[in-house]
Amino acid sequence: MIPRKWKMYFKMYWVKITIGAAVLLLIALAVIGLNSLESYYRNITLATMPVNLLMVAMNAVIFVYMYMIFMRGGFSKLSQKLRVHGEFVNVKWSDVIGMENIKAEAMEVVQLIRDRTRVKKIGGKILRGILMLGPPGCGKTYMAKAIATEAGLPFVSMSGSEFVEIFVGVGAARVRALFKKARELAYGYGGCIIFIDELDAIARKRVFSAFGGTEETNSTQNQLLAEMDGLQEMKDKHGEPSPEQNVIIIGATNAPEDTLDRALRRPGRFDKIIYIEKPGLEDREKLFVYYLGKVEYDRSLDIGRLARKAVYKSPADIENIIKEAALIATRNGRDKVTLEDMSEAMERIDLGLKRMINMSPREKETTAYHEAGHAVVTYMLHPTNDVFKISIIPRKDILGAVYSQPKEELFSYSKDKLLADIKVDLAGYVAEKMRYGVTSTGVAGDFKDAMRIAHYMVWSLGMGGSGLLGDYTSIPETQLSDHLKEKLNQETNNIFQQCQKEVEALLEKEKAIIERIVKDLLAEGELEYDEVEAIFNEFGKTHTKSA
Amino acid sequence: MIGIKKPLLLFTIYCSLFTILCGCTATYPQDKIKESIVRICKQEYKSDVLVETAGRTMVIYLPLSDLMDFSFALSKAASEKINDVIFSAARVALSTDARIDFYCVIAHDIKMPELQIIIIKSVEDVKRLFANDISRGEYMKRMLIDLRWSPQAKKEQVVKEIFNKMNLDPKWQDQVMADFFRSEPTSLGDIGYWGSKFYIKDITLAEFLAEQIANRVKLEFREDKSLKESFLLKSAKGVYISKKGKRLFRFEAFAERSATGTAGTIEDSDKIFETVLSVAAHVIHGYHFKDHDGVEVFDQKEGRSIEVDPEELEAFRTKRLKLNEIGR
User: Fold this and answer.
1) A38 touching B, CB under 8 A?
2) CA-wise closest residue to A140 among A274, A19, A231, A35
3) Residue A88 to residues A91, A155, A231: CA-CA distances in angstroms?
4) Domain total of chain B
5) Distance of alpha carbon A117 from its chain centroid, rounded?
6) Residue B2 pLDDT more than 60?
7) What is the pairing mode between strands A155-159 and A86-87?
8) Which of B22, B27, B131 sits opposite A38 (nearest CB)?
9) What domain range is B266 assigned to?
10) Least crowded by CB within 10 Å, which of A181, A197, B308, B315?
């Protein structure tokens, strides 16, 4: 009885095995042939063999080169060749930082994979596919590998984009090759996990052309559907389910769920959907601890504050921040990553690199007043955001910035929060106006943002003052009366005006703080969280935010 | 990295396996050279031969029943047999662990044993021919072929005539002949087979070259049109001698001047010198032979000679010096 793994290896590598055996046979024949020669002829043959081999190799290289250049359009096509490799990954649950809820859900999946027989016995449906949805860099691939490791199954991974080809049928062929490889591995190991990253590349809603043709993506997706269905029907000669059907497909995408084709989401295909979100505060702390553990860092670093500052950051972002901070520390001649390095790394990633441009003193002062206005309003009026940094050093296309983040990620926004956002946006304008009587072009971005929020509040959220409720953007604008539109726009303007008044009143009152911030900014260029806090405390203001 | 290492490892294993399995042992071991040639000639060519070695020279004696045809030319059958034996000797000389530098085939007609064909070849030349290092034409010129009366036979016939005149008892004739008139050869011209005895010597490269140069000079005088018109070469001999502590290649040429020739006496001599030196320089250079102190050419007709040292000879060969600029 030939062990199943041997059969699997033969199925998978029969070409290599055949070539290897043929080479060995040829060697044996060559040895026999050479041994039948007299020693001089044998020696001369052996002596000339390297030269002959070299000549043959050179001929082969020239032939392949000419063939590739003239017949196949160059070597760049080679890289497009599909290669499917199975591998045993080694990512444990403990390696997946945070995401406890998702881990628990994934653990259930592992149990289902492990207990297939039991599930079948009680008539349960075998898990066929898992769809992981979530923003990029949140560990979907990592989670898939952890599932494969915990289930003890080989892991075949491909990106959705690898299926996409200009030639019709190539993508489908690649899907067939992928499933063939997975079935071979499943035959040997009792199961296999296919991971398709960026699934949206082949799983978007299909387009059915009126002219009878289909897009290449359609045929790729059809093949994927067919392969997933085909897995359920595989039986061995005794009518028992074949081990080759134990193939689980894990798809991952950061595209919205409703952009995917419904056929893929129906039961029997991607049965289970796991939503992977960006990490919460606690998880971010764990991630900082984990990634900081890989570099030398100042032990006095407040990881809690870093985690608060890194709200909305994915694990990949956090890893990137720490790598960037390590580079900055090295560049600055430090052997440890400090708070300063972390802060600079975050800003580099969020705001971009500092630009060394020469601003006139007046420009600098205008920017300082503008940013001070933003900072004071954020600090005193914003219900959720902290001011982490104020800067008048130019970055990308901005001359200055107030780096503020909510204390915790928010999943819905209150009216207060939205109004505060508008006030913060208008604060730059008001501060400039109060100081100089005129304003600069620096307010353009703020106005645009504030107007968008105010418009959204009135037109979509029913947050205007006149009682007009409903989402007026959901109906064509031509169906809205001019009177209604005028009223809605008036509401928007009222919000704007009201906010402006409140900001003017506040900034007038806190003029001293503004002047102090401007003075420090002009002297230092940037003010960190602690320095900002100290200024406000000096003027008897304390920070009371509720998330 | 793994992708590159695996094929390299496999390739190394295959090559090692191949080399080990092929082995490096000689097909004809040193102690079985004679039996090997005898066996090959017998089994593969139905020829009976005798083999003897002297130092690094291997000599094969081939008795034939019809060496010459009615026109006194080498018969086709004899020619084929001789070629078979030469080929067998080459096979063994090439695939043995014994150091063989020259091999020699002595063929004679059993009905006329005094007339012998002596063929001498250098093993190195055979190797170079196989490696395409020399052309077949050059290879043929490097081979020494001589059809001659056996010197020993001539000597013994003369001695026997004397014995007969002396009425010496035939039973003593052999004894006296063996004791006083049979000796080992001292030059290539003495090599032969006579009276069930090999007369052989260990051939040196120097004497082989001297003989080869003389043969080539003869050929040159036969084939070159202007030489042929001007001269009638009667003899050309070449030896490698030691003279006044110097090791020299000495060539003696005797050439009659033809009636149509227009050149003067000295010019004729110079032409002979030029031809011989040119051939000698070419051959010595072709074998990378360094173990000599010069070349001497003697024009027997005019009694003039020229001696050139190796540096001059090389300059002459490469046309950096002319004849009147070299020699003493």
Assistant:
1) yes
2) A274
3) 10, 6, 22
4) 2
5) 36
6) no
7) antiparallel
8) B27
9) 205-325
10) B315
B199 assigned to some structural domain: no
CA distance B23 to chain A (A): 8
Per-residue pLDDT band for B209 (boundaries 50, 70, 90) equals very high
User: Within chain B, where are the H helices?
Assistant: 2-22, 33-45, 76-94, 123-130, 136-142, 151-165, 170-176, 205-223, 225-230, 265-286, 310-317
pLDDT along chain A (547 residues), means of 10: 78 87 87 85 84 92 86 59 57 78 79 69 68 84 82 82 71 84 82 85 71 63 80 61 73 85 80 83 86 86 82 85 91 87 83 79 89 89 83 84 78 84 90 87 88 90 80 84 87 89 89 90 85 86 61
What are the backbone angles phi and psi of residue B326, rounded to the nearest 5°?
Answer: -125, 165
Contacts with A42 from chain B: Cβ below 8 Å: 22
Cβ-defined contact of B22 to A44 (cutoff 8 Å): no
Amino acid at B118: I
Q: Is the pLDDT of residue B119 over 80?
A: yes
Cα(A402)–Cα(A383) distance, integer angstroms = 16
**How many Å lie between the alpha carbon of A49 and the closest alpha carbon of chain B?**
11
Residue B188 lies in a domain: no
3-state secondary structure B66-78: CCECCCCCECHHH
CATH assignment of the domain containing B131:
3.30.300
Examine the domain organization and report whether B211 and B282 are in the same domain.
yes
Classify domain A86-275 by CATH number.
Answer: 3.40.50.300
Q: What CATH number is given for A281-351 in this structure?
A: 1.10.8.60
Answer whether residue B215 is part of any domain: yes
Answer yes or no: is B164 within a domain.
no
d(Cα B319, Cα B325) in Å, to the nearest integer?
11
Domain A361-538 fold:
Methane Monooxygenase Hydroxylase; Chain G, domain 1 (1.20.58)
Asked if residue A13 lies in contact with residue A188, where contact means CB atoms within 8 angstroms, the answer is no
Cβ atoms within 10 Å, residue B53: 17
Which of A38, A40, A42 is nearest residue B22 as measured by Cβ atoms?
A: A42
For residues B319 and B209, state if they share a domain. yes
